[in-house]
Design goal:
The relative contact order is 0.21. The chain is globular, with a radius of gyration of 19 Å. The strands form four sheets. A seven-stranded antiparallel sheet has the order 2-6-5-8-9-10-11, with no helix packed on it. A six-stranded antiparallel sheet has the order 16-13-12-21-20-19, with no helix packed on it. The protein has two domains: 3-16 and 132-257, Immunoglobulins (Immunoglobulin-like, Sandwich), CATH 2.60.40.10; 46-113, Immunoglobulin-like. A hairpin with a 3-residue loop joins strand 12 and strand 13. By secondary structure, it is mostly beta strands. It contains no helices and 21 strands.
Length: 281
């Protein structure tokens, strides 16, 4: 069964095409890297899980690196990576969705990832990549489309499946894109020259198939600084400003909305989404 969703437009430059003690960190502006200072690599978020009423964010960086996550309200949490560069960072539960910047801090300097961590109260979590496909976190089973990003000209899609399998992603009116599911169980695909309109979107592998109808609308928001995170039916919609101007909007599908593995998927349609700045009906 074809499912229905809608993708909001955004004004980003085109979409293109990663243990220790922890607790709240004081928020201090990081100084720019000094000339000749050691180059710092930004940390990567790899997974998230619930534990004792908190969220545990797992990731990798350099050995003994100081890791800091800061939400949209300026609350920061930190931890240190172990000798292998791995870290677990605990976050308190929250009643509302949060978007965290991801940084490694050393000697007054910081390396900020171009990705951000989205975390909703219901446990929906994803790494939102600048100019690319969002990558949902947490355990997924079967095969399905997980997220869609759009900027008015290009479309990025991500999903999950069996590691190593080839996946062909189809967007009506555009050439198919075939990639392989990576070792983490995720696949991505990107399409350029995608104008606003209604499109059939599908993904297929030996493990199964998934299909949706997406409605793309041109960007209309004039507020370059606005961050909006909203649950709309079977998905989360995140609209955020980007460095240097522009906006990116990501739709993250909830865990329970996975497609069937080769069978008929009779799930209800997701709600239609409006373009930024348009009033509710």
């Amino acid at each position: 069964m074809v499912r229905r969703a809608a993708i909001l437009g955004l004004g980003l430059a085109a979409l293109g095409a990663g243990l220790g003690a922890c607790g709240p960190d004081p928020v201090q502006p990081a100084a720019p890297a000094a000339k000749g200072a050691q180059w710092l690599a930004a940390p990567a978020i790899t997974d998230i899980r619930a534990d004792a009423g908190q969220w545990v964010v797992r990731g990798a960086s350099d050995a003994s690196a100081r890791i800091r996550l800061t939400d949209q309200d300026g609350q920061a949490f930190g931890t240190d990576a172990n000798a292998q560069g791995l870290f677990d960072l605990r976050l308190n539960a929250s009643d509302g969705p949060r978007l965290f910047s991801i940084e490694r801090v050393s000697g007054g300097h910081a390396a900020r990832s171009q990705a951000a961590l989205f975390l909703a109260p219901d446990g929906t979590a994803a790494v939102l990549n600048l100019g690319g496909a969002s990558l949902p976190l947490g355990e997924r089973t079967g095969f399905g489309i997980a997220a869609v990003d759009y900027d008015g000209r290009a479309l990025a899609v991500s999903g999950w499946g069996a590691a190593g399998q080839a996946v062909t992603v189809r967007l009506a009116g555009h050439s198919d894109v075939t990639n392989r599911v990576d070792a983490t169980g995720r696949f991505t695909a990107a399409f350029n020259g995608v104008l606003p309109g209604s499109y059939g979107l599908g993904a297929q592998s030996r493990a199964g198939s998934a299909s949706r109808t997406i409605i793309l609308t041109a960007p209309q928001s004039n507020d370059a600084s606005r961050l909006a995170m909203t649950r709309l039916g079977a998905l989360w919609r995140i609209e955020r400003p980007l460095p240097g101007g522009g906006r990116q909007i990501s739709l993250i599908l909830l865990d329970g909305q996975s497609e069937s593995s080769g069978g008929d998927s009779r799930e209800g349609d997701s709600p239609l989404l409006q373009a930024p700045g348009t009033p509710s009906a």
